[in-house]
Hints:
The chain has helices at 15-21, 23-41, 59-62, 69-76, 80-98, 100-111, 115-126, 133-144, 150-157, 169-197, 201-209, 214-225, 227-238, 246-252, 258-261, 264-274, 278-305; strands spanning 52-53, 64-65. The model has no long low-confidence stretch (mean pLDDT 87). With 312 residues, the protein is mainly alpha-helical. It has a two-stranded antiparallel ribbon. The chain has a single domain (82-305), classed as MetI-like fold. It is 68% helix and 1% strand. The longest helix has 29 residues, at 169-197.
Amino acid sequence: MAGKKIKFIPPGKTTLTHFFQEWQLYVLIFFPMLFVLVFKFGPMFGLVIAFKDYKIARGFWGSQWVGFDIFKTIFRHRDFLPSLRNTLVLNFLDLAMGFPMPIILALILNEVQTRWVKRISQTLLYLPHFLSWVIIGGIALQLFSGTFGVVNNVIELLGGQRTPFLTEKYHWVLSYILIGVWQSMGWGTILYLAAISGINPELYEAAIVDGAGRLRQCLSITIPCIRSTIVILLIMNLGKIMGGSFERIYALQNAMVLDFSTTIPVLVYRWGIQGSNFSRAAALGFFQSIIGLILVLGSDRIAKKLGEDGLL
C-alpha cells in the first residue's frame, strides 16, 4: 500500500471502475465509517423517547406521544438551572485555563534541542491521558485529602494549616480545573507539535538572518503559522461547553460539593440510570446537544468572518 500509486481515472470511466481499481482504500475507510454509523448515528433513533412518556414495557412505538411536555418539565425542575450554571461555569473555566496550556507546552517542547530529553518529557506528559478518571480520582484523594493527604501533611509539617482541597466548594473547583489541565495538556500538544513540524524551516532561517531571537521567532513565525489549528480546536472545544466529562465529575465529586459538582451530565445519569426516567434524561441530553451544535456553528461563522477557514 505504501508504494502503490493512485491512478488517474479519465472522466469517461465510472465510479464503479474507480472502486475496483482502488478497492483497498475503500476497505480501509469502511470500518471507521461503520463505527460512526453504528455508534454515532444509530443511537440517534432513541431521541424519539424525549418526546414520549417512555415505558420500557410498551417500547418505542407503544409509549404515549407527549410532544414537548418533557422539555417543559425539565426546564421547570429545581435542579435544572443550578446544573446548567455549574456546567457553564466549570467548562468555561476549564476552557480558559486548559485550552492555552497545550499551546504553551508545545512551544516549550519545540524549543528543546536534546532529543532524548524531549522524548522523555513527551512520554511523561502524555501518560496522564491514558489513566482512567477512577485512577486519577484515587490519586487526587491520596494527595489532597484534608485528613490524610500527602500535600496537607507537608503543609502541616511546614507549619501551615490544612486546606480542604476536595471538601470546600471553591477549593474543589480550583482542584477540579487544575487536575483536568494536568490530565489533558500533554495529549493536547500532539496536534500543535504536528502543526509546528509542518512550518517551512526557511522562515526561521530568514528570521535568524534578520537577527530575530528565539522568542521573536516564536511570536512572529510559530504562533501565526499554527493559528488555523488553534482556531479549529477552539471551535471544537466551544462545542463542549454544554457537555463536559461525566467520569471526571463523578470521580472527583463528594457529598460536600454537590452544589457545584451537579452538572448536566450528572443530572442525565441521575434521571436516566438511577431514576429510570429515560424520557427526561433523553430530553436533557438532546437539549445539551442542540446548544453544543449552535455554539459550534456560531463560533465557526465568527471565525470565518475574521478570515479563518473554520470547520465547514
